[in-house]
């Protein structure tokens, strides 16, 4: 698939078929994605791929802790709640998703269930936990590198018929993820990618988020026109 078509067609998938993903397919995805740009070729990333009972344990404990009111415990510093235009965009996509799923504004149980789906990593059969070498903290550069790898993963997955959603809720309790996945302390857990074969009958999978017009965020300098 041509790159432009691949980027335009890719979307976040929040409903997956109950179908395992072969290890060989994931290996091929990572093989492609690792060609992502990396500052000075430092390649600060690590990928921990979970499926089966370990992933189920992470899902269950993450959800139970958050339901019980446990505090978020992520390795990376959080920005806190979004405000202003960022909050507006967050609300806009939530409205689209709830509309597609038929979740009414006053339907608290269904809205809560949607939140819990995030903590369960949307019941995807595979989760790729992305980490980087702690020795590089604090460092936005290695964060950038990991973002590039992450996007490479989701594009390579889509090209192979797999859907994914970059999912910070899945590692809200990074201590649980670290314990179950046996991630060493010298790695920082940044995010995870829930992955699997898309369920075409799941309404939210058809939702596409809006993007600002180029003139809203692009500035051209030095061009004749």
What does this structure look like?
- The protein contains eight helices and four strands, in the order H-H-E-H-H-H-E-H-E-H-E-H.
- The chain is an alpha+beta fold and 225 residues long.
- Helix 2 (23-33) crosses helix 6 (140-159) and helix 3 runs antiparallel to helix 7.
- The longest helix is centred in the middle third of the chain and has 20 residues, at 140-159.
- The chain is globular and about 55 Å long.
- It comes from Bradyrhizobium zhanjiangense.
- Residues 8-197 form the Nitroreductase domain.
Summed up, what is this model?
The chain is of the alpha+beta class. Helix content is 43%, strand content 13%. The protein has helices at 3-9, 23-33, 52-67, 84-101, 108-119, 140-159, 174-181, 214-217; strands at residues 45-51, 126-133, 163-166, 187-196.
What brief labels describe this structure?
13% strand, alpha+beta, 225 residues, single chain, 4-stranded antiparallel β-sheet
């Amino acid at each position: 698939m041509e790159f432009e078509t691949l980027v335009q067609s890719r979307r976040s998938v929040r409903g997956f078929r109950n179908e395992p993903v072969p290890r060989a397919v994931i290996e091929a995805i990572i093989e492609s994605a690792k060609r992502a740009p990396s500052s000075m070729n430092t390649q600060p990333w690590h990928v921990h791929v979970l499926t089966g009972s370990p992933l189920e344990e992470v899902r269950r404990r993450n959800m139970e802790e958050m339901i019980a009111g446990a505090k978020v415990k992520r390795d990376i510093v959080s920005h806190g709640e979004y405000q202003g235009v960022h909050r507006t965009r967050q609300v806009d996509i939530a409205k689209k998703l709830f509309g597609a799923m038929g979740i009414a504004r006053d339907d608290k149980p269904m809205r809560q269930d949607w939140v819990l789906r995030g903590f369960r990593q949307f019941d995807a059969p595979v989760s790729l936990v992305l980490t980087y070498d702690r020795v590089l903290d604090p460092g936005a550069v290695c964060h950038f590198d990991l973002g590039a790898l992450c996007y490479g993963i989701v594009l390579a997955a889509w090209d192979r018929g797999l859907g994914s959603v970059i999912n910070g809720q899945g590692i809200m309790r990074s201590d649980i993820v670290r314990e179950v996945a046996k991630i060493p302390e010298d790695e920082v857990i940044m995010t995870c990618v829930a992955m699997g074969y898309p369920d075409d009958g799941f309404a939210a999978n058809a939702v596409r988020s809006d993007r600002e017009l180029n003139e809203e965020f692009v500035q051209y300098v030095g061009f004749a026109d």
